Amino acid sequence: MKPSQSGTKAEALALAEASDDDLMVGFAAGSYPAFEALYNRHRDAVYRYFLRAADSASAADGHQETWARIIANRGKFRPQGRFRAYLFTVAHHVLMDQFRQGKWETGTEIEAVADDSPEAEASALETAARLNALIGALPGPQREAVAMRKEAELTIREIAQVTGATEEGVKSRLRYAMAKLKRGMQGYE
Predict the structure, then answer these.
(1) CA separation for the pair 157, 145 (Å, rounded)
(2) How many CA atoms lie within 13 Å of 157's alpha carbon, on the beta-carbon side?
(3) Burial of 150 (C-beta count, 10 Å sphere; 0-12/13-18/19+)
(4) Would you state the pLDDT for residue 5?
(5) Residue 18 DSSP class
(6) Residue 51 and residue 63: Cα distance in Å, rounded?
């Protein structure tokens, strides 16, 4: 028996409104649509996290490995709060493993913002290139803290838990990183 169209819409709405923890629990119980909804919510942020640390090929490898570990360990997941913190803990471990193995090519990618005029687009590309270069030049712990805060939207406490640093240490990393980025971006729009 095929599900009715309204059943499909109701299921899609339920998945869209479900919490990340509920989706992960559903996936662990065998629901592929629950995983798909979870993946669609977080895939871009995970990829951008890796892109801040490496070139696009290495970032793609890290992204893929993170999701492979999430899938492989789905039965071990215990809903204890924000799934996003759990996800970025896994991503952090993948990143550290890859760095230790020397598999990463560092660099930053340029993400352009489309605009109507070629001048505005060129300016946006130049600004994005400058910011990405500055982020790429940050020391690893500062770069990672910025990525977790801006890309993953983790709290200071969650970043500390993921990285094993103190909350004060995370605040310090972010403060120094933001000061360097602000100095480096002076004169850019």
Answers:
(1) 11
(2) 2
(3) middle
(4) 41
(5) S
(6) 9
Long-range CB pairs of 70-74 (<8 Å, 24+ gap) are 71/35, 74/24, 74/27, 74/28, 74/35
Are 11 and 3 contacting, i.e. CB atoms less than 8 angstroms apart?
yes
Rg of the chain over CA atoms, in angstroms? 19
What digits encode the pLDDT tens for the residues 56-106?
A: 788 899 999 999 999 999 988 888 777 888 898 899 888 888 777 765 554
Using alpha carbons, select from 161, 163, 109, 162 the residue that is nearest to residue 136: 109
Pull the structure tokens for residue 66: 């993170």
DSSP states along 97-128: HHHHHT-------------SSHHHHHHHHHHH
The letter for the amino acid at 122 is A
Phi, psi of 154 (to 5 degrees): -80, 155
Contacts 24+ apart (CB under 8 A), 83-87: 83/19, 83/20, 83/21, 83/23, 83/24, 83/38, 84/20, 84/42, 84/45, 84/152, 84/153, 84/154, 84/158, 85/154, 85/158, 85/161, 85/162, 86/24, 87/42, 87/46, 87/152
End-to-end CA distance of the chain: 58
pTM higher than 0.85 = no
Report which of 88, 98, 85 is spatially closest to residue 67, judged by C-alpha positions: 88
